[in-house]
Each structure stands twice: as C-alpha cells, then as structure tokens.
Amino acid sequence: MQIDKDAVVKGIGTPEADELALINALARRELGADEVYTFAMRLCDNDVDRDFERFGDETLDELGALFVGVSGVFDHQWSARGQTARIYRTQVVDEDGAVTCDGRPYRCLKGWAYMMRTGENAGLIAEIDGGIKREISVGCAVERVVCSICGGEIGSCPHEKGREYDGQLCHGVLTGATDAYEWSFVAVPAQRRAGVIKSAKRRMEDEARLGRRYLKGLRREMVRLAGIAEPEAGHALLERVAGRLDEEELLGLIELYRKRADRLLTAGVQLSYGEDAAPPEAADRAFLI
C-alpha cells in the first residue's frame, strides 16, 4: 500500500464530517469521528506490472465502484479473523505529467479505508503511520486479457507477454471488471506502485481445469471403492451419483467405502487359502489447489 500524501487527499487519520457519513453508511451503528482511523492508498493502476499485465483505463473505472465496501486482509488469506479495514470511498485519478513505462498517461485507483480505533488495532495503526505496512495488492476478476499488440485474447494470439514486437512490449490488458474480492497487506506486490493479484478469466479457467481434474480423480476413486463395497450397484449409477457430489461429500464416501472395501478384501484373502489380494489403487490426489 502507498499511503497517499497528495495535498488534495482528505480523510487521513480522523475523518471529517462528509467522510464520516460515508463510513456510517457501511456501519451497523452511528460511529463517532474519534472511534475510527482512516487512511488513503493507491489500490492499482494502468501501468505494466511484473507479470506483464495492466488494467485498462475503463477497467479501473469499473473497479472503483466494485471496491467500495470491500474489506482488507493479510496476504490474501480469506479469513474473518484477518479482516482489518474496509474501503468506504474510491476515486480514479489522472496524475498530471506522470506516464506509464510505455509512455501512456498514468492513471490509478485510489481508495480510502477505515478501521476501528481499538487496542487490538493500535499496533497496526502505528505501523501504517510509521510506513511499515505499506504494500498492498487487490484480488479481483476480469472478463478477459487482451493482447496489447493485436487486440486478441492472450494465449490464443501468436504474441508472447514480455517480448518486444517492432519496439512494443507485449503485455496483457485486463478488461471488463466483474468482481472485487478483497485487498491485502503484502510484502511483494505484483504492481510496482500498488500491487495486484489478478483472477482474470484465463487464470480462472486454468484453476478451474485443475480443480476439475482433482474432482474427477475423487469421483473415480469413489466409484471404484463403491463398486468393491457394493457390487450390486451398477457402475453407471455410481458414476451418476458421484457426478453430483462435492469435494467434502466425495472424501467422506471415499473414507467410508475404503473401510468397507478393506474388510471385504481382507475376508477374500482368508477364503483364498493364503493368496495375497491385490492392494487397492491409490487415490488420485495430484491437484490440490
């Protein structure tokens, strides 16, 4: 996080009346100015980041509305215990004279957040004021990542991020903001001036594909064990049942059917006059994300 020191910034430390009104729109009860601590930050911008991606200008505008009311955590750990502050106002700012690494006018999304002045938060407030807690990144989703060279979908076009083509650096333009999950205090953000962790459509598809492979392995293992434990059940029926179950349900049934299958296999060994039964196949657990 970069604490904003621009002269035009309001709402740092103790909020003024108009800032407090925005905060109280999010609070469950009317808060007094002396109860809250406020600070400003640069959430994200339109410069090319360490992943050779950037937010499009329109995407910054879309994210501005989405981030109002979003809470901050630590290191993108989605836990209520880690919630520290909440954004109550945002603004997209054109910084006069500032340019991006490839020469475009620089724009950034600024946010103003508040936290309660409690004994538990006193240390964090001191770290923010002292410049210790500075860097942040944001968690969000966009519809697509567009190639800066040809305008096609990154990954489907012939260009590669990070390479130059006729003097132009190829990078992905994050386009069409659809959600804002959280913002986090981090040690090393992706964006040099603010920090960003992106859940763009392509990345979401990659993660979804890995998740599907993991679930497919669980379903296959459940069907295999259920077929041993309940041989009267048809394979097609077991596959249909497994296809409707989530991870927790599959893991529970795998454990149940494994115990039953082990008992049946052990009994089979006793009836086979000492012949060793083939050990059960190991579960496919290659992708845990």
Could you describe the 3D structure shown?
With 289 residues, this protein is an alpha/beta fold. The protein folds into 2 domains: 17-143 and 178-195, no CATH class; 206-271, no CATH class. 31% of the residues lie in helices and 27% in strands. The protein contains 6 helices and 10 strands; from the N terminus they run αββαβββαβββββααα. The strands form 2 sheets. Strands 1, 2, 3, 4, 5, 6, 9 and 10 form an 8-stranded mixed β-sheet that branches. It has a two-stranded antiparallel sheet with strand order 7-8. The radius of gyration is 26 Å and the shape is flat. The two termini are 27 Å apart. Residues 1-9, 194-204 and 269-289 have low confidence and may be disordered.
